[in-house]
Each structure stands twice: as structure tokens, then as C-alpha cells.
């Protein structure tokens, strides 16, 4: 009887061994599958990080160019209101800036475009230089990740409206010109003060408000000037 009981116990353990092997193999496969998913997710996240950085870089480069364009127009006495709204020439190197930042994240820009005018936006597509890598999923060793991002440039300033409490400035009438001496007076060498060239009128200050902060810029003697970030905000589109 004892010998029969020992044989039964040995037979039960022998039957459990294949089940144990199967369970271990299943857990190992599940672990490898989760690892493959993690690899793919990390590659995708890397692509999205590169796309976000590239889009923001393009928009910021364009924003900096708009700021320089605005200050140049103010100094030259040219129209500047549209530039303050973000409607200007901006940068021609924005997409090159996007490629540089994508390269820093081990990716390449596959498409870069500006769309809209007020406010302008940049849409950038990137592709990773690295692949997902070897895994239990066939073909992942040659799969690159792609992602896109859009960055918007938003004006932060408005032209300062005139203060209704300020009285209108009356226009001064020009004095009547003094008579010029005739050629028979014998004073050919003395032309008088009326022949002096007139001075250009002083350019009025340019005033605008950026998120509650008032700016007044003298075109002829600019002092403290706003930064690009004071004039325009740059953010990723939702």
C-alpha cells in the first residue's frame, strides 16, 4: 500500500511539471510583448518630443523676426500696426531652425509649413532617425516613428487708443513768407533766413499696450524696447 501511494504522488508531480513550464513560457512571452510595446511607445514619445521642439523653434524664430520688423518700421516712420497684429514678413529661416531642433532630438523634419496670417502658425512633421528595434513583433527593427505638431504665434498687444480727456492738438498755421529782396537791391550775397531748409517734423511716439503693460517708443530716440516675448506668445496648438 505504501509503495502505491508513493507512485501516485510521483505521478501527480510529473503531470504538474508541463503545466509549470507552460505557465513560465506564457509569462515570459507576456513580458517580451510588454517590452515591445514599451519600445514602440518610447520611440513614439521621442518623435513627438522632436516634433514639439521643432514647431516651437520655427514659431519662435518667426516671432523674433516680427519683432525686428516692427521696430524697424517704427524707426522709419512706416506703417507698423499690421506687424503688431502678427501680419508681417517674419523669418525665412524658420523651417531651418525647426530642422536643427529636430536633429538635436535625433529626428528629421519631413514637412514644415506656415499657414494663416493673423496669427500665423507652423505645422511640422518629423520622423525619427532610429527605429523601434528588435522585438518579438516581426518587422519592428526597421520601423521609424513619425509625429507632427503645430505651434501658434499669438499677438499680445493692442494699439493704445487716444485718451478722450486729452484735448485735440490745434494745427498751427504757417506764417506768411517774408518777401525776398529783389535783384536790384544789391544784396545778392545775403539771402536771408527764409532760404534755410525746413526741419522735418518730429515723429510722434508710438504707443501700445501688451497684456496691461503700456509701451511708448520714441522713433527718434528709442529707449527701452520690448522683447519678442512681450509682443507675441508662442504655444503649441491644442
From TrEMBL:
<feature type="domain" description="Putative Flp pilus-assembly TadG-like N-terminal">
    <location>
        <begin position="21"/>
        <end position="61"/>
    </location>
</feature>
<feature type="compositionally biased region" description="Pro residues">
    <location>
        <begin position="164"/>
        <end position="180"/>
    </location>
</feature>
<dbReference type="Pfam" id="PF13400">
    <property type="entry name" value="Tad"/>
</dbReference>
<protein>
    <recommendedName>
        <fullName>Putative Flp pilus-assembly TadG-like N-terminal domain-containing protein</fullName>
    </recommendedName>
</protein>
<keyword id="KW-0812">Transmembrane</keyword>
<keyword id="KW-1133">Transmembrane helix</keyword>
<feature type="compositionally biased region" description="Basic and acidic residues">
    <location>
        <begin position="153"/>
        <end position="163"/>
    </location>
</feature>
<feature type="transmembrane region" description="Helical">
    <location>
        <begin position="17"/>
        <end position="37"/>
    </location>
</feature>
<feature type="region of interest" description="Disordered">
    <location>
        <begin position="139"/>
        <end position="226"/>
    </location>
</feature>
<keyword id="KW-0472">Membrane</keyword>
<dbReference type="InterPro" id="IPR028087">
    <property type="entry name" value="Tad_N"/>
</dbReference>
<feature type="compositionally biased region" description="Acidic residues">
    <location>
        <begin position="184"/>
        <end position="198"/>
    </location>
</feature>
